[in-house]
């Protein structure tokens, strides 16, 4: 069911806010901080849907077709559906996942709720590499920071609000998102 809501209510922005970018760009931290700033919000972590696969999971490694790509798209469908369900219940759904290339446009089409916003965190590769080195988890596998940054900058459609958050604190990034939310609106 498609729903149309105003961008602002007594509870803050309504709808779905998608936070994307390459690994270690700050998506998880920013999405959580954004959700915490809103009076009624849910943080939908796209990777949680991947982790729900107990057996038979296949990582997506960039090759078109096959089980890895099918499971990535399943994850996207599930997170978009969950976001819509939270929004229908009166929450701002803040979705966070790595959605790059033409998949970003396809993801926006999966979002049935209105309004829908996209925020692309695009710190420079040097800042991402420093963050990746400093954090306790590693997520790149076969990918490099440069590989994913090239996909982000060269093959991802310029939808929504793109932020170079490399020099911003988490709070400054959230402030920028909230103050520029109209720029992020895609539906």
For the record, the CATH architecture stands as 3-Layer(aba) Sandwich
- List unreliable stretches of 5+ residues: 1-7
CATH fold title: Rossmann fold
Give the N-to-C terminal Cα separation: 15 Å
Which CATH class applies here? Alpha Beta
In CATH, the homologous superfamily goes by the name P-loop containing nucleotide triphosphate hydrolases
Which of globular, elongated, flat, extended, rod-shaped describes the shape?
globular
Beta-strand fraction estimate: 15-25%
Number of strands: 9
Instruction: Please give the count of helices.
Output: 8
SSE pattern: EEEEHEHHEHEEHHEHH
Tally of separate domains: 1
Radius of gyration: 16 Å
Mean pLDDT: 89
Helix/strand-derived category reads alpha/beta
**Helical residues, percent:** 40-55%
**Biggest sheet features:** 5 strands, parallel
In short:
With 187 residues, the protein is α/β, with parallel strands linked by helices. The chain is built from eight helices and nine strands.
Tag the structure with descriptive keywords.
single chain, 187 residues, alpha/beta, Rossmann fold, five-stranded parallel β-sheet, two-stranded parallel ribbon, 9 strands, 44% helix, globular
């Amino acid at each position: 069911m498609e729903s149309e809501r105003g961008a602002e209510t007594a509870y803050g922005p309504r709808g779905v806010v998608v936070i994307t970018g390459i690994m270690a760009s700050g998506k998880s931290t920013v999405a959580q901080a954004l959700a915490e700033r809103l009076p009624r919000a849910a943080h939908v972590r796209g990777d949680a849907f991947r982790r729900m696969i107990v057996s038979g999971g296949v990582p997506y490694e960039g090759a078109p077709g096959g089980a890895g790509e099918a499971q990535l798209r399943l994850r996207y469908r599930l997170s978009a559906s969950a976001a819509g369900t939270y929004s229908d219940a009166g929450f701002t759904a803040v979705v966070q996942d790595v959605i790059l290339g033409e998949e970003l446009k396809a993801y926006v089409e999966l979002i049935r709720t209105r309004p829908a916003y996209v925020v692309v965190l695009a710190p420079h590769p040097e800042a991402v590499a420093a963050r990746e080195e400093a954090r306790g988890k590693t997520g790149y596998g076969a990918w490099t920071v440069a590989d994913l940054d090239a996909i982000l900058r060269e093959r991802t459609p310029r939808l929504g609000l793109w932020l170079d958050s490399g020099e911003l604190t988490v709070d400054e990034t959230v402030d920028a998102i909230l103050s520029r939310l109209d720029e992020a609106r895609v539906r």
